[in-house]
Amino acid sequence: MTAPRLELRDLSKRFGSVIVADGLSLTVPPNQALGIVGPNGAGKSTLFAMISGELNPDRGTVLLDGVDVTRHRADVRAAHGIGRTFQIPRPFEGMTVFENVLVYATAAAGLRKAEAYRLAAATLERCGLGDVANRPAGALGLLNRKRLEVARALGSNPQLLLLDEVAGGLTDPEVALLVDLVNGLKAEGLTVVWIEHVVHALLASVDRLACLAGGRLVADGDPDDVLKDPSVRDLYLGHAGVLEEDLQ
């Protein structure tokens, strides 16, 4: 399976009076790493939910390689090669680390037993979890829970990977480990869309940066240029979790 081209056309979504996507259009070509930044409440995680099929937009279209998947269920989109993580890790805590990934290799990737076992084992090694494969997922520390969240998404054998704040709460050395992992996935040909407040992690890995606010696209382009944009700086400065030195 080759990496798909993702196109979002005029996506709109509201919850009551709160607008979380307002005519949002965005294209991600195959094999690109796109970082998405924006203040809390900008609609970033809702955007992922509409891409992955957990939410339907009120208006607009989601296309993969030109195919309209806007009303397809999440499992159908997973079969099209979309994998995603969640901001708060959601492991099956009573299962082992290996079993967590195996579930995705069988249920999402549709692999049979031997193939699923091989994919799960290889994914755990790739994510630095080989030595804790038989440990209950509920016993993991934060770094390994984040790694497991990525591993579970990779267990679905995706070509488009959606990462939702996987660096949040980690130390700088731990963030560096995740950046190395993402860069390795890029080198393997995956398309990556990464929502993150840890801006220096994005700068070390993405090809392009987009900023959302109020459900709208505020800036999109070269990461350094986007961070120098006055509107982006106005949105960020003073918000918790984003430091002045990140925006230099």
Plain-language structure description:
It is a single chain. This protein has 248 residues and is of the alpha/beta class. The protein has a domain at 6-81 and 158-242: P-loop containing nucleotide triphosphate hydrolases (Rossmann fold). Helix content is 35%, strand content 24%. The chain has nine helices and ten strands. The strands form two sheets. It has a six-stranded mixed β-sheet with strand order 6-7-8-3-9-10, sandwiched between helices. A hairpin with a 2-residue loop joins β4 (59-64) and β5 (67-68). The chain is globular. The mean pLDDT is 92.
Number of helical runs? 9
Number of strands: 10
> Helix/strand-derived class?
alpha/beta
Architecture of the domain at 6-81 and 158-242, CATH level 2?
A: 3-Layer(aba) Sandwich
> Per DSSP, what share of the residues sits in E-state strands of 2 or more residues?
15-25%
